[in-house]
Amino acid sequence: MLLFQNPESNLTFKAKKAVFLLQPFLLLNKMNKLVVNSIYRATAFTSAAIYAGFFINVINIAGNNRINRTFIFTCTTSCANFWINFKSHLFNIFKLVVIKYGRENKIIIYFCTPKQIFFMKKKLFLLFCALLPFFLSSSQTDNQEVMILYLLPFHLNEGFVSNTSFKNREEIEQVRQFEMMGFWLGAKMALQELENSNRKIKAIVRDAVTDKYALNKILNDKHLMENVNIIIGPIYGSLFPTAAEFAKNNNITIVNPFSTRFDFVENNSAVYKLVPPLISRPKTVVEHFLAQPENFNIILWGDSTTSIELQAYKYFLNEQNIRFKEVHTLTIPQDMRKTNLIIAFFDRQERVIHGVHTLINQEEEYDRIVIVPEKWLSVSELTEDFYKLPELYFFANYFVDENCDRVNQFRSDYTFFYEAPAELSEYSFQGYDITRYFIDLYFVDFNSDNLHFQPLSYQFRWKKLLDGGFENTKTRLIQVKDLELEEVR
Known about the structure:
Elements: E1 18-19, H1 24-27, H2 47-55, E2 58-62, E3 68-74, E4 81-87, E5 92-98, H3 114-142, E6 144-152, H4 169-173, H5 181-193, E7 199-207, H6 212-219, H7 222-225, E8 230-232, H8 240-249, E9 253-256, H9 263-266, E10 271-273, H10 280-289, E11 296-301, H11 308-319, E12 325-327, E13 339-344, H12 349-360, E14 368-372, H13 384-387, E15 392-396, H14 405-418, H15 428-442, E16 462-464, E17 470-472, E18 476-481, E19 484-487
Parallel strand pairs: 6-7, 6-8, 8-9, 9-10, 10-17, 11-12, 11-13, 13-14, 14-15
Antiparallel strand pairs: 1-5, 2-3, 3-4, 4-5, 15-18, 16-17, 18-19
Helix pairs in contact: 5-15
């Protein structure tokens, strides 16, 4: 197939005018090998890719208002780059240089009469105008770039950790340098998934613990920060407001993965707060259980009146005119006509053990729904009788369904790459979800309605705050059922 023709067999244009003869219908034919003569050699590539390469991917325009301009094009298959120098008229080509050498392909050049040039320019111009919208949209998707800055607490200033000094898992978990290692490894899994996509993704990782001076040094590094689009972290609340203010002033999206604080999101449009507000929990309880609240004895069981979550329940139930009883010592009302909804608010281990003993040793059986803090499930002293309570629930900010194929595949891949298990407690799933979700969200202009990715451990339902950022309002209610965990839908 002839792309260029040159009767004089000379690739030096000098003063003679030459024109690029594009034959789009031939170019879109089956894969054709082009042959470069002995002077120039280029990699074999499809003719359709050449067609796209010349018209779709405009990488850079050098020059300003001068007549001579250099347009740099890149083939979509990344097989060849072409420098084409236009002088005064479109498609009036003076110079062609082919780089990235290959074998067997030959490019032939045509020198044309002025009349031929005129008709060819006219045809090319009409074709270019007709296909321009498609080419521009393709260019936008093929050249997408994003840079992410991770501010994670690796505690690197606390010294080197020897990997031969640990006797068991508990000792490893106590090392602060490993605190967010699972998060970063999960993030790397997401980045690896996107390596072969048409997106250009750059990731920068910096150690950010509690030192504000060190954080400001990172943020004030103009060379580092000039192209950052998304910041994930800092994890600790003492540093996040500083980073959030910087993000707001520089039009950068910033993600807070774990904090329950509300102050940094209410007046900052750059912030995404992932942990749902505590007020979403009583709302969920009312939605799932209290369609007819008069049929329930609602018992708020705590050991401190200063509990923020307890205050959230009291505020919401009072607002809904739903009656409840607040107790420090659990006593079950002797009313067989009503179901007892018991919500616990304490998590000190000795108090939990005593509370569970109270629950499972009632002399009489009453219908009861029990909602406990998630930390209760990590108390090793609890017996199987507790987990067999017929209506036992807890709230979680993140949760994975062990019966989900994607979850099991992620666990398998994570173990293969890192020789370590992927666990929620080590933030492996969270690092993966946050990275993949916000990269995809960035490329749909932060319109979550156009997002197809479903996180493994999070569920998001965003609420845009007036003059503020975005807060996730989707809380997760989990039931302990037949010694397994199941999300209430």
